[in-house]
Specification:
The complex is a heterodimer of chains A (522) and B (130). Chain A is 41% helix and 19% strand. Classes of the chains: A alpha/beta (522), B alpha+beta (130). At the A-B interface, helix 1 and strand 1 of A face helix 3, strand 6 and helix 5 of B.
């Protein structure tokens, strides 16, 4: 009697053999034509190859050791290629051949919840990724016809941003500031806020919400930073809606240079399939540095600060891929939040000015504000959003319309008020209001505030409910008010979400609720 | 070694002058090299180096290397050469090499183009597919 296990094994073996036979039959008469070259020198993650007369720009090159490269420099007799993978395997004299393919990364929903490298290979030990498709890293950005106006908001959950520097879906908003001013924190908070909204929508608590999937691209970061971000996402339940593309400082300059493009390709899949994506490029200063290294090793002519001449095009072609497209073109959007680190607050350096000019506005974070305890340390004067206001919901516009102006006037008056003690009533009122707004906009990390709560709090401020509250107690007042609204007046919050505007009826309800709350609040 | 623009231009000029009726002329090449060595202009050693490299690439472009696992018969060899000349022109130089590593079949290389019907290549492709 035959053992069933042995029978199974025999069946499997015969299937494998059949498969091999069909493969061999398919190969029998084939003569493959390829275009080859010989590696003349290699080093620093770059190889120079003689031959390869038919190679195309950005084409993948396969080396005899199985390592792949990317043709970046096409010269008269040589090709300069950057190496992907284990660079030590490529030796002088190795044969290299063209593949006719562009570099691609896996895309699709299978990548959500995963940590991948530049090539889309998993780094989190959660097994292989069964991706639905693969997209080329380099793709031409959608043209004018395919684009649509930015009208839907990205609720970052950070009150100062949602009220004063609103971001729309399809926008590119730069986050800029010195080291340790909370740039990544703003980005991470935004991701957490999206996860909370997506989850609320899934549970039916949020109507008409289009989920926003997030891609966090870490370029040249410390591995510990990436691990910390991952832990925060996991702790806040954001990973199911997030992909992390990691090209840490220990990775090759090639991978660091390609990582944002891989992130953009992953985002584009969502856009093409009628979904919305948010990509954080953390950060593009290090990306420019990685590209400078690659360019210098490839012996490309260097320009200002030794960056190559096409460093502007590098970032413009990347950020142009963020767009909101028409229904015919997929109907989705890609929003980009690039991060730039400045040196000693110098926004007029080469890379910061480049990226400022490419993006649709910037959130400028100041060291001084950070150490004064104003966190997020957003500088109201220097931060702008060029398209986001069109995406704000009416309720926020109603309550936050004049806040930016009020705050700017407050800063100006506060500077003058230092010289004299006698102030007229109007100036004093403005100063009082300003200092309370500053307090309101202080927010703890990983604690996004929903849009309806933002509206209620700002409405209370605008209607003078905070004027009698001492400045140092404003924050406590706000927290208690939010709790009170969540616990006792959920209907008001719900009607803000559904109506998306404050009408007479809602105003009366809000006034009644706030009167009641103030009577109980000490 | 970094080659400057001047050296590159001079070596390219030398290569352009090495042809007679579209074919490399050994006599001209010898003459050019000899005159350069006699006159010893600035950077002439680097120019000669760059010229040598360009010549090597030019010769490779016009040389067909036919590798086979076993020695090819006279008849097959002539047929292959005739086909290659039809494709690349009469100036093509041919070289026959026996390479047992191919295991079977043939591998023809002209410049950067390679036609590979060797068993080794098929096995490699099979390995990749599996």
């Amino acid at each position: 009697m035959i053992n069933p296990q042995a029978r199974n094994l025999r069946q499997t073996m015969s299937t494998i053999l059949e498969e091999i036979e069909t493969q061999i039959a398919g190969l029998k008469t084939s003569t493959s034509k390829s275009n080859v070259g010989v590696v003349r020198d290699t080093g620093d993650g770059v190889a120079r190859i003689e031959g390869l007369s038919d190679v195309m720009l950005n084409e993948m090159i396969e080396f005899s050791s199985g390592v792949y490269g990317l043709a970046l420099n096409l010269e008269e007799t040589e090709v300069g290629a950057i190496l992907l993978g284990d660079t030590t395997l490529v030796k002088e004299g190795d044969e290299a051949r063209t593949t006719g393919k562009l570099l691609q990364v896996p895309v699709g929903k299978a990548l959500l919840g995963r940590v991948v490298n530049t090539l889309g290979e998993p780094l989190d030990g959660k097994g292989p990724i069964k991706a639905e498709a693969a997209y080329p890293l380099e793709k031409i950005a959608p043209g004018v016809i395919k684009r649509k106006a930015v009208t839907q908001p990205v609720q970052t959950g950070i009150m100062a941003i949602d009220a004063m520097i609103p971001i729309g879906r399809g926008q590119r908003e730069l986050i800029i500031g010195d080291r340790a001013t909370g740039k990544s924190a703003v980005a991470i908070d935004t991701i957490i806020s999206q996860a909370k909204q997506n989850k609320a929508a899934e549970e039916g608590r949020l109507q008409d919400h289009r989920p926003l999937y997030c891609i966090y691209v870490a370029i040249g970061q410390k591995n510990s930073n990436v691990a910390r971000a991952l832990a925060v996402f996991e702790a806040n339940g954001a990973m199911p809606y997030t992909t992390i593309v990691s090209a840490p400082a220990s990775d090759t300059a090639t991978n660091q240079y390609l990582a944002p493009f891989a992130g953009a390709a992953m985002g584009e899949w969502f856009m093409d399939h009628g979904m919305d994506a948010l990509i954080i490029y953390d950060d593009l200063s290090k990306h420019a540095v990685a590209y400078r290294q690659v360019s210098l090793v490839l012996k490309r002519p260097s320009g200002r600060e030794a960056y190559p001449g096409d460093v502007f095009y590098l970032h413009s072609r990347l950020l142009e891929r963020s767009a909101r497209v028409t229904e015919e073109a997929g109907g989705g959007s890609v929003t980009a939040l690039p991060i730039i680190e400045t040196q000693a607050g110098d926004v007029s350096a080469y890379i910061p000015t480049n990226v400022i000019s490419i993006t649709d506005g910037q959130i400028y974070l100041e060291t001084d504000l950070f150490y004064q305890g104003v966190r997020p340390a957003i500088s109201v004067g220097l931060s702008v959003s060029r398209v986001g206001s069109a995406a704000q919901i009416k309720a926020i516009k109603q309550v936050a319309g004049k806040i930016k102006l009020d705050l700017a006037q407050f800063r100006e008056l506060a500077a003058f008020a230092q010289f004299g003690s006698d102030l007229d009533a109007g100036t004093k009122a403005r100063l009082d209001r300003g200092s309370r707004i500053v307090e309101l906009f202080k927010q703890t990390q990983y604690n996004p505030i929903s849009v309806e709560e933002q509206v209620a709090v700002l409405w209370a401020m605008q209607n003078g409910y905070l004027d009698s509250v001492p400045v140092e107690k404003v924050k406590a007042f706000q927290v208690k008010l939010q709790d009170y609204l969540r616990m006792r007046k959920e209907s008001i919050l719900k009607s803000i979400v559904t109506k998306k505007a404050i009408d007479k009826e809602l105003e009366t309800e809000l006034a009644a609720a706030l009167d009641e709350f103030k009577s109980t609040w000490e | 070694m970094k080659i400057n623009k001047e050296i590159r231009q001079q070596s390219r000029g030398l290569l352009r002058s090495s042809f007679t009726d579209g074919q490399l002329d050994a006599g001209r090449v010898t003459g050019l090299v000899r005159s350069l060595i006699e006159k010893k202009p600035r950077n002439y050693i680097q120019v000669l180096d760059a010229y040598k490299r360009l010549l090597r690439l030019e010769v490779e472009k016009r040389t067909a290397t036919i590798e086979s696992a076993t020695e090819l018969s006279q008849e097959t060899g002539t047929e292959i050469v005739a086909n290659l000349i039809q494709k690349y022109g009469v100036s093509l130089d041919t070289r026959f090499i026996v390479n047992q590593e191919l295991l079977g079949g043939m591998r023809i290389r002209v410049g950067s183009d390679v036609w590979d019907s060797s068993v080794r290549n098929r096995l490699q492709r099979l390995q990749q597919q599996l």
